[in-house]
Amino acid sequence: KEVTLLGQNVNSYGCGLEEKMEFADLLYRANSVAGIERIRFTTSHPKDVSDRLLQAIAECEKLCEHIHAPLQAGSNRILQRMNRNYSREHYLKLVERMRHYVPGVSITSDLIVGFPGETEEDFLETLDMVERVRFDAAFTFMYSQRSGTRAAEFAEQIPLEEKKQHLERLNRLQYQIATEINQELQGSIQEVLVEGPSKTNPQKLTSRTRSNRIVIFSGEKDLIGRLINVKITEAKTFSLFGEIFNE
Predict the structure, then answer these.
(1) Is the pTM of this model over 0.85?
(2) Is the distance from CB of 245 to CB of 231 less than 8 angstroms?
(3) CA-wise closest residue to 165 among 108, 103, 221, 118
(4) Domain Radical SAM core, which positions (predicted)?
């Protein structure tokens, strides 16, 4: 029913192939495969998301309207130290392009606090980016040293307590935004792929929307593996709740 194309940077697909092909070409081909009803992909590096890729998402009916584009940090100084090869201004323009080509697209991200040398001003720039972009969801982390990396050798390592405080502040903001976005979906009808029993309540089923949101609802187990419509009746930070919708 659903296929996920996975790569550290899927935008680089085709490099080194004899046949000239971009990732967008692969998506168009996958969209034509019989039996596949949904296609997802991850991860797209923000530095080289092409208009053609965004156009493919808009044109291919099987492609889910969800893009995971890790920002990592909102400070240009920290992005440069991370060697990310893009700026906050570039990322904001990318978000504009995403929403232009795919209205209503779900945008998720990765964010790191406490990268060596990060100041309070740098951290506030990350919070500012979270407020500007309004991610549907984000995976948030504290930086930790990894031997063999340049960052591990940087002198300005951030104290653990400061990293914890910054992570708490970041999560508080992101959770508020995610809750607000999810609440806007209350009363809407969503197509979901039923994945199986809910981990938190095995008496209910868990499913996933095209925008990659979890929806919990009551239903028979023979629905597992099927695409159905549900009406959203309740919204929380990390999941939605609904009921089967029959027209």
Answers:
(1) yes
(2) yes
(3) 118
(4) 1-180
Domains of the chain are: 2-185 (3.80.30.20), 188-244 (2.40.50.140)
Which of these ranges, 18-22, 46-50, 83-87, 112-116, has the smallest mean pLDDT?
18-22
Query: Which H or E run includes 5?
Result: strand 2-6
SS3 (DSSP) at 154: coil
* C-alpha–C-alpha distance, residues 238 and 220, integer Å: 23
Q: What is the DSSP letter of 102?
A: S
Half-sphere exposure at residue 221, Cβ-oriented, CA atoms within 13 angstroms: 5
Main-chain phi, psi angles of 108, to 5 degrees? -120, 165
Residue 1 amino acid letter: K
In the numeric block, which tokens belong to residue 89? 């201004």
pLDDT tens track for 198-237: 999 999 999 999 999 999 999 999 999 999 999 999 999 9
